[in-house]
Amino acid sequence: MTLQELISENKRQLLNDREALEKIEKKLEERMLKKAE
Question: Rounded to two decimals, what is the model's pTM?
């Protein structure tokens, strides 16, 4: 594996992690909104 491949693989992982976090945050927000009503 070249350095370039490693870097792009890391970037891909970070993007996946960020997407997962955003999904979790949205779910939490929806729950908070339902409780607030």
Answer: 0.65
